[in-house]
């Protein structure tokens, strides 16, 4: 994997955690909107990249899906 791709992955993870830390809980649509806004000066993250990083962050217990709504994410401290 290239350095550029690896850097984009890390920047995407970092931005997702930063957004969720501020908001505590957020819908998928809101998260994607804020993420694109936060990263637009560096690069435009693809939906595939965002989805993969959300899944990675869920697996590693940085965030979880809300029990009542699968499209809502909750930050885990």
Automatic annotation (TrEMBL):
Ranges for the Cullin neddylation domain? 4-71
Which Gene3D superfamilies would you find in this protein's record? Winged helix-like DNA-binding domain superfamily/Winged helix DNA-binding domain
Q: Name one GO biological process term.
A: ubiquitin-dependent protein catabolic process
Q: One Pfam family for this entry, by name? A: Cullin_Nedd8
Query: InterPro entries recorded for this chain?
Result: Cullin, Cullin_CS, Cullin_neddylation_domain, WH-like_DNA-bd_sf, WH_DNA-bd_sf
Q: Which PROSITE patterns match?
A: CULLIN_1 (PS01256)
A GO cellular-component term linked to this record: cullin-RING ubiquitin ligase complex
Question: Which PANTHER family does the record cross-reference, listed alphabetically?
Answer: CULLIN (PTHR11932)
Protein name listed in UniProt? Cullin neddylation domain-containing protein
